[in-house]
Design a protein that fits this description.
about 20% strand, single chain, alpha+beta, about 170 residues
């Protein structure tokens, strides 16, 4: 038995360094390279299908909403100035997301919408509506009053297509 062990030790010593045996460092390098390749592949797939929240835009963005408009027609109202000699002629358009229920509700409540609008406009003086920057505040006030009475949605914007003070 001692002779067999001695023969094995002599054979190992006699093998050249570049033989079929791989060194331990080479195996470790191959395992590390395989691990990095697998991690990179998985990370790339996750980023491709999920994305980075808050950094990359969604791959499949929602389509932009479709809007409809409702023309309210032209109205002439007296303004709340002393003497009552000033009036406002206004033509308005309401914009809302396309929705059959909301469209039907707006048509059904057209009289209430016009009443709220006329009341708001009549309560204003020339100084409250004349400067252009005050029109936005007036639009917001009208939009909020209309939205308070709606159940199936809301008005997104109010446009004045005609606005004349005399």
């Amino acid at each position: 038995m001692a002779v067999v062990k001695k023969d094995l030790v002599e054979k190992e010593a006699a093998e050249p360094a570049g033989g079929k045996k791989r060194s331990g460092i080479m195996i470790v390098l191959l395992v590390l390279a395989g691990t990095f390749l697998a991690v990179g592949l998985v990370s790339g797939l996750v980023l491709y299908f999920v994305g980075i929240p808050g950094v990359m835009p969604k791959m499949k963005a929602d389509p932009p909403p479709v809007y409809e408009t409702l023309e309210l027609g032209e109205r002439v109202v007296n303004l709340a100035d002393d003497g009552g000699g000033r009036y406002l002629r206004v033509r308005m358009v309401l914009e809302h997301k396309k929705d059959e229920k909301l469209s039907a509700e707006l048509k059904e409540k057209n009289a209430q919408i016009m009443d709220k609008t006329v009341r708001i406009l009549r309560s204003k003086s020339v100084g409250e509506v004349q400067p252009v920057d005050k029109e936005e505040k007036l639009k917001t006030e009208i939009m909020n009053a209309i939205n308070a009475g709606l159940k199936n949605g809301k008005i997104e914007k109010v446009y004045f297509t005609d606005f004349l003070i005399q």
